[in-house]
Structure formats: structure tokens, C-alpha cells
């Protein structure tokens, strides 16, 4: 079998990955096995699970405990421990990989371990277990250096330009995802999420807000993508959005919310996050 651990090894891809074209739809996928959601008890996972449950059984995998919903099983374990990812992904029809370090101010060592290292483990397990669909949580920080007035709107097909170690770690996550798709034939979708699950109290986030109501349907749409790699921005239909959503819409994502009603109460920036707002409203710029 070909995995990221040994990309040059010659060998057949396991059969389940080649079954992607069978045109099953949600009901068939439901019968096939649960969708695994790593980090599913975290901020984003907790927001999207109810929507995902409308079409899939879920296996929530997290190193912290949480309450399960009807249609869910859970595995409380650290995916960084050898063998855990293989156990977590056994029999899965897909995996949404959210577990990681989401902090834009984290150090390179922290995000390398939590994002790059963990994603590699999860993708190797997905290859070994023959999981046909993978959705990877990326971030606008992978393209953060384009977050300047002269670059708007930002096209997801442009060359990545991370604004921080966190964004760089997600660029590598995306590259790992693309390689995984090429090696295995799986469907692999990278979602460059905007701000999700935080209070919209600063105006600089109005353009990149992803509402609770839109986040679940975005993940559901990503689980329907055909074989191969693709990467998309994931925001709501914000009036002030400058991230191009057209490729996400082609997946079937139809955002319903707009951050504009929050504009009257959203205030000035309170802290430097990283370089993403430089040249705009960063007090350090
Ligand atoms: N929330 C946002 O606004 C946002 C924006 C862009 C991208 N993202 C990405 O979405 C993903 C989820 O973000 P979040 O805000 O929900 O973060 P979070 O910290 O709230 O949730 C992450 C979850 O992953 C779990 N986890 C981490 N390492 C693990 C491990 N080794 N084994 C098992 N579980 C582990 C944590 O326990 C936690 O429950 C991250 O990859 C993040 O980079 C989030």
C-alpha cells in the first residue's frame, strides 16, 4: 500500500478508495460506515456535528471528552499516539480532520507537531484503512499575506502565502492532502476556514466570518467532492467578504448568513494576532 510514510513504494491502492464513483449519495455513505470527525469536541467540531448527523453517522475522536448526540459514537484518545489513528479510522466512510492547534500566534514547534505531524499520522491511517473521503481543516492564514486591499478578492488557486507559522503549517497540511489524493485516489478537500465559533466583536473579522449555520453545510458539501484534491475558502456570504467562494459553491455550498448586521456593534482590534491584518488595521503595522 502507498502512504505518505513511504510515497515511493509501489503497490495497489486499497479497493474502498476506488469505490468513490459509485454515486451512492448520503444514504449509501450512511450504510458504509461512520464519518470520523477528529477534534470533534472542539469549537468547530461542536458547531458542525448536528448538520453532519443529518446525512452521516459520526465517530467523534478527541483527546478530551464531550457529550455525544444520537447517531454518534466516540473515541477519547490522543491521535498522536502510534496506532490510535488506525483504530479511529477503521471502517470509516470519511474523515473530517479538525484536531490540531488553531492558534495563529503559536510557535513553529507547536504547530509543526500538532498540525503537520498529526495530519500526516491521520492521512497514513486513512490510506491504510482505505478511507475514501478526507476533509482537512485549513485556514485563511494559509493565504494571510493576501489579506491586503490590493489583492481583493483573493482567489483560492493563487500560490499560498502564509502570514504566520500557523498558516505555514496549514500550507503543509494542504500539500500533504494533495499528495495523499495523488497517491491513493481518495477525495481530499482542504477548507480554508474563516473565523468560526467566536463572538463577532471586532470589525476586522466581518469579512472572514463563518457562521454556525453555514459551517455544517460547508463540511457536508466537502464530503460530496469527487476524487482528487481541491482547496476552497470557507466563509459566510458576508457583504465585506474578499475571499472568493466560487469554488466552494461548485461543491454545493450555499452560504446563508452575512456578518453585516454585526457591523454596527463590532469594534476596533484589541490585539495583534499575527501578520494577517498588517497594512489594514494592525496596531503594529
Ligand atoms: N475556529 C476557527 O475560527 C478556525 C478557523 C480556521 C481554521 N480552524 C481549524 O479548524 C480546526 C478546529 O479548530 P477549533 O477552533 O475547533 O479548535 P479547538 O482547539 O477548539 O478544537 C480542536 C480539538 O482537537 C482536539 N485535539 C487536538 N489535538 C489532538 C490529538 N492529538 N488527539 C486528539 N484530539 C486532539 C482538541 O482536544 C480539541 O477538542 C483546527 O484545525 C483549526 O486550525 C479553525
Automatic annotation (TrEMBL):
Transmembrane segments: none annotated. Pfam families: Epimerase (PF01370). Residues 1-29 are annotated as: Disordered. Residues 35-194 form the NAD-dependent epimerase/dehydratase domain. InterPro entries: Epimerase_deHydtase, Lipid_A_modif_metabolic_enz, NAD(P)-bd_dom_sf. This is NAD(P)-dependent oxidoreductase. It comes from Nonomuraea mesophila.
